[in-house]
């Protein structure tokens, strides 16, 4: 199987899994986000572990998953907002655990363990608040007594992929000026602009179908996705270069790992959520 065909086939399955999972039902929405969280956080911790620093993989992931579950329950109205306070003792427990691990670089371990929660669990936890108590695109399967729309998340990923496609095609055809060569030699300013244009066009045409916010807001979301998503990709490239890693994983043939595929999402979505919370 040649590289192009393998990459295309894997990409199709990624689209089916992500859009299908988030769109099908609130339960599948929860499970899809959980899979992405576990995959990205685990890969980040493994990358750091390979550098000689030993982060607390299991406690860190338990904390990340707990933050995601609490966010889901709060967003759906099952538990009160102050339930986030339960994360405080979990963070303190990780500090105490580090005292007994006898590592040469304990604060490097703590820093990367805490950052893995901030870098991966925080963005995916925001997905829930962007879907529950909102109206717009309906889930495929009906659900009773829950106000829920996956429209923001479905639109978000479509715009991410539109930006990636526009950047790739424009960069390959017209790319001459490097965007940030020391971090990502293949990215160009021409590709960056092409990604913004295609994402904005996608937002214009899909806004009426997706709902939740109006057309102008969707175009602004496209701009946020394109700009912040590009920086998200650069941040992960910086991580891989600084640790001597080519791909974050190999679970997705032709695409690498979870971090390779969703690096743009985990940096750009917090800004998208901030925007819709303030103006949407």
Structural write-up:
The chain is mainly α and 280 residues long. The protein is built from nine helices and two strands, in the order H-H-H-H-H-H-E-E-H-H-H. It has a two-stranded antiparallel ribbon. Strand 1 (178-180) and strand 2 (184-188) form a beta hairpin. Helix 1 packs across helix 2, helix 2 (26-49) crosses helix 9 (258-279) and helix 6 (151-174) packs antiparallel against helix 7 (189-210).
How would you concisely characterize the structure shown here?
This protein has 280 residues and is mainly alpha-helical. The protein has 9 helices and 2 strands; from the N terminus they run H-H-H-H-H-H-E-E-H-H-H.
Which features would summarize this protein structure in a list?
280 residues, mainly alpha, 9 helices, globular
Strand count, sense and closure of the main sheet? 2 strands, antiparallel
Q: For the record, give the distance between the C-alpha atoms at the N and C termini, rounded to a whole number.
A: 45 Å
Q: Averaged pLDDT, please?
A: 90
Strand content: under 5%
Strand order of the largest sheet: 1-2
Helical segment tally? Answer: 9
SS elements, strand count: 2
The poorly predicted ranges are: none
Computed CA radius of gyration, to the nearest angstrom: 19 Å
- Overall spatial form: globular
What proportion of the residues is helical, as a percent range? Answer: over 70%
Order of helices and strands: HHHHHHEEHHH
What class would the helix/strand composition place it in? mainly alpha
Architecture blueprint of SSEs:
Elements: H1 3-24, H2 26-49, H3 57-75, H4 87-101, H5 106-131, H6 151-174, E1 178-180, E2 184-188, H7 189-210, H8 215-243, H9 258-279
Antiparallel strand pairs: 1-2
């Amino acid at each position: 199987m040649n590289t192009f065909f393998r990459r295309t086939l894997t990409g199709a399955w990624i689209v089916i899994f992500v859009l299908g999972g988030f769109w099908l039902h609130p339960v599948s929405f929860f499970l899809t986000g959980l899979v992405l969280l576990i995959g990205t956080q685990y890969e980040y911790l493994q990358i750091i572990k390979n550098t000689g620093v030993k982060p607390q993989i299991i406690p860190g992931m338990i904390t990340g998953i707990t933050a995601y579950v609490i966010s889901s329950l709060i967003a759906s109205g099952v538990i009160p907002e102050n339930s986030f306070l339960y994360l405080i003792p979990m963070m303190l427990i990780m500090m105490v655990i580090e005292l007994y691990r006898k590592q040469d670089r304990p604060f490097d371990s703590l820093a990367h363990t805490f950052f893995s929660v901030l870098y991966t669990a925080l963005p995916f936890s925001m997905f829930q608040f962007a879907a529950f108590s909102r109206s717009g695109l309906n889930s495929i399967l009906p659900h009773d007594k829950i106000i829920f729309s996956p429209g923001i998340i479905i639109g978000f990923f479509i715009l991410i992929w539109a930006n990636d496609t526009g950047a790739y095609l424009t960069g390959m055809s017209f790319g001459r000026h490097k965007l940030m060569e020391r971090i990502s030699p293949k990215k160009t300013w021409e590709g960056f602009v092409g990604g913004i244009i295609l994402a904005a066009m996608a937002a214009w045409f899909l806004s009426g179908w997706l709902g939740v916010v109006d057309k102008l807001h969707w175009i602004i979301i496209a701009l946020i996705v394109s700009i912040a998503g590009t920086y998200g990709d650069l941040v992960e490239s910086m991580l891989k270069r600084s640790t001597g890693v080519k791909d974050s994983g190999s679970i997705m043939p032709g695409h690498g790992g979870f971090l390779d595929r969703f690096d743009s999402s985990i940096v750009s979505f917090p800004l998208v959520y901030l925007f819709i919370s303030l103006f949407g």
